[in-house]
Amino acid sequence: MLFIVLAAGLGKRMKSNHPKVLHTLVGKPILGWVLSACRSAFDPGQSNRIVVVVHPDMAEVVDYLEWWKEETGIKGVENVFQSERLGSGHAVIMAKETIDRCEKGERVVILSGDVPFVRPQTVQELVQCAKSCDGAVLTMDHPNPQGYGRVFRDPQGFVAHIVEDKDCTSDQRSNQEVNAGIYVFEARALSWALGRLDNENAQREYYLPQTVEIIQKHQGRIAALKVDDAIEVSGVNDRLQLVALDRLMRLRINHYWLAEGVTIVDPENTTIEPEVRIGIDTIIQPYCFIKGKTGIGKDCVIGPFSQIADSWIDDGCVVDRSHLRGVRAAKEVHIGPFARLREGTELSESVRIGDFVELKKTVMGAGSKAQHLSYLGDATIGENVNIGAGTITCNYDGYHKYPTQIGKNAFIGSNTAIVAPVSIGEGAIVGAGSVIVENVEKDALALARGQQVQKPGRAAVIRERNKK
Ligand code: UD1
Ligand code: MG
User: Fold this and answer.
1) Which of 88, 110, 183 for mutating ligand 1's site (highest number of atoms within 8 Å of CB)?
2) What is the pLDDT of residue 74?
3) Which end of the chain is more exposed for a tag (fewer CB within 10 A), N or C?
4) Which atom of ligand 1 is nearest to the CA of 113?
5) How far apart are CA 52 and CA 316, in angstroms?
6) Structure-derived torsion over alpha carbons of residues 31, 33, 37, 39, reported in degrees to the nearest 10
């Protein structure tokens, strides 16, 4: 099956320096949603290809397609250029060579790059609908049809023609059945009809919907599949529609997780991206952003204002007001409030990370703690280690990054600077305020700070002098 995604339109009403189809909805570009719908509607028995029609000034879209191909491993994706924006029909003509390479009887699915939330099942139903005809169009009875093409049927219920809003008579305008901009055609019928399009209309454009009328007039038949969920046919043309759709999809995802046994305290103010997975009895408090490929286990509490991206959080963890990216946390780990855990952080069971602690590429063994005000980077820390408040691994000399090793059961006193590369042995104790530049042996006490000096009575002398 061939999928054609129309994405060359200007998107003027977005008032943006970036292509409309790359604006995001719940963290995923509009075009990404459409491509996912194509992918899920692939016919497993056939070779499936996707052609995206873009304008030559849309290099960002071409880069995104390359990224998407790599990410999904789907090879049959290409773009064709439409250098002059002469209408949706003209955009499809740009893919005519590919259409003409289709086998006779093969179906071509056409989707609008700005209609993100059509369900894959709906696309599959539309394909079914088109099986016994020359094509099928997705429609909806819209409470506010303004701006959409209106669908007119013949006495048998097939689509006779589609009239754009701007070309409608006032009588036609009162018809509420609208064209969703999603179509399936038999490849030969489509190719033949594309050759017969004209631009005799209010906008002087080559309209794709005119193909329906052309096929119908030559004894072809185009079926209509009516959906009743407005989100499936909603297009994004401006930022108001973007945020309205974003909210609707966010709520859908959150309601899904509520139904799956996850408590989302405030579904209006929680963002869970589509690829996230969450276990039952986990509680997500308000204002959290859970992004990318994140997995959260059972019985966790994710505190307010947390941001978690591309991380794996095992059962029974607590994350409170913290930012995590690329983190793996085993069972019963507590993080936050106000921690920042970066790429490559791996925390074993029952680790405790407290306030104002930053970790980067750091591994901590079971039961270890860094409860206050620390930076630990490129460090490998054993089990049951206590990292005192204000401990810093000095892992960077302005040119290179160096590693730190801390053995199990070690105790690092507060305000210690550990100048990497260096290792601290198992069970060692480092005195508070030390600057450690040399390796510390197993079970040793290391002190690296000035000797304390005490002058009896001197404070009272200074006080008296200052009073005078
Ligand atoms: C289109 C349909 C309308 C339907 C509505 C549903 C046409 C003429 N009308 O109207 O019947 O109710 O969608 O949302 O198709 N595009 C190009 N190149 C162009 C022009 C458009 O690639 O030269 C692409 C756009 O990027 C977009 C799609 O085609 O993805 C539809 O174009 P748009 O201008 O958004 O048409 P609508 O007015 O929304
Ligand atoms: Mg549109």
Assistant:
1) 88
2) 94
3) C
4) 30
5) 44
6) 70
